[in-house]
Amino acid sequence: MKYRALICALLSTVVAGSAVAQVSSHAPTAVTKSSPANTATVSQSTVPQVSDKPVARVNGAVLTDRDLVREMYTIFPYARQHNGFPAGQEASIRQGALEMIIFEELVYQEAVRRKVNVPPQQVKEAEVEFQRQFGSPDKYQEYLKLEMQGNPELVRQKIRRSMMIEKVLTTDVQNKSAASVAEAREYYNTHPQRFQQPESFSIQTISILPPKATDPGKLTAEQKNDIRKRADEAYSQAKTAKSYQDFGLLAEKLSNDDYRVNMGLHKAVKPEDLPPDILKMLRTMQVGAVSGLIPVQGAYTIIRLNSHDLAHTMSFEQVKKPLQDELQKSKYEKLRSNLAKQLRSKAKIEIV
Fold first, then answer.
1. Domain presence at residue 325
2. Alpha-carbon distance 213 to 26, whole Å?
3. What is the Cα–Cα distance from 253 to 263, expressed in whole angstroms?
4. pLDDT tens across 84-98, in order?
5. Residue 213: predicted pLDDT
6. Residue 20 lies in a domain
7. Are residues 144 and 204 in the same domain?
């Protein structure tokens, strides 16, 4: 259940990670016609401060910035590793978190109105499960001291509140959102275009590229010789690769292109995204075959063909389970949205 799984998040200590934001930078690929440039940028991050001041009142119940920041970290957990929230996204994350904690409070108040009961034994079991996540009794006691004024009863109240919310969402949303096989088949039959799959190739590559920031048209003879030597050495090993795994390990070790971090794998490349000469060659290759050295703008690429799928229509059996999941998610979000509107329509909400 969604809210049972979020008990830990609902109670977590809000501490920003100390790691600086990671910067991703890749060499250009040498296979596709074009690929988006990967520019290394450093975004400013902000760490929200917590002072337990009110941020909203829901029918008189006060929600604090501690509630708000806790939810912000739930929405964007990477903030712990990246020293805060990206400055350009913090406002939208904050707004989403505010909407969520208001929704949770509205559902909780509805649970109270309905006299939803959570047996003490269930609360006790959830409390034991929660404590395990701290790894040691000392760490749990530290949490109690910092976040719960040293009072275990406050933890139980939070857990009980979370489980009451879960019960309302289960009856009003979860149990009503299931998508049957018949519903999935009806959608499949009325949206045939969605299940048309174009022709595609799955390939792995090992690309030997010029040094970064070097214009391929201005390579010196020495640089060209070095690139060709490295390419020949790579090919001598690649042509003996007997499997996806063998070729992939070589790609991780030898390749200079973007895909080396994924064992050289390009998933489902469409014909129109491939240079004409490479496309022509792929159409003549057997699955599992490794190409020779292919010159591409001052570089060399070696390709392994993993699969070649012709244009086809996916069968209902192929898409049944993911389609049911998709329809269930859509129904869940619609029911949840309707519940939120219904509860808001009769509530007094003040943003502080």
1. no
2. 12
3. 9
4. 898 889 999 999 999
5. 66
6. yes
7. no
Strand order in the sheet with 54-58: 61-64, 54-58, 349-351
pTM for the structure as a whole = 0.66
Buried b (16+ CB within 10 A) or exposed e, 213-249: eeebeebeeeeeeebeeebeebbebbeebeebeebbe
List the alpha helices (DSSP H) in the chain.
2-5, 7-11, 65-75, 90-113, 120-132, 137-147, 152-172, 181-190, 221-238, 244-254, 276-282, 316-345
Instruction: Report the candidate in 171, 161, 167, 16 with the shortest Cα–Cα distance to residue 101.
Output: 161
Mean pLDDT, residues 46-67 taken together: 91
Q: Are the beta carbons of 293 and 23 closer than 8 angstroms?
A: no
Would you report the helix, strand and coil content of the chain in percent, each value rounded to 5? Answer: 55, 15, 35
Structure tokens at 106: 């509205």
Give CA angle at 61 (57, 67), nearest 5°. Answer: 75
Distance between CA atoms of 176 and 137, rounded to whole angstroms?
A: 40
Spacing of C-alpha 137 from chain mean position: 32
Question: What is the distance between the alpha carbons of residues 305 and 278, in angstroms, rounded to a whole number?
Answer: 11
CB 264 within 8 A of CB 204: yes
What's the pLDDT tens digit per position in 129-179? 999 989 999 999 998 988 888 999 999 999 999 999 999 999 999 999 999
Q: How far apart are CA 144 and CA 321, in angstroms?
A: 43
232 found inside a domain: yes
List residues bridging with 207 in a β-sheet: 301
Do residues 28 and 162 both lie within one domain? yes
In CATH, what number is assigned to the domain containing residue 232? Answer: 3.10.50.40
Amino acid at 256: N
In a domain, 330, yes or no: no
Query: Under a CB-based contact definition with an 8 Å cutoff, are residues 171 and 1 in contact?
Result: no
- Match 């064992």 to its residue by tokens: 263
Identify whether the C-beta of residue 42 lies closer than 8 Å to the C-beta of residue 24: no
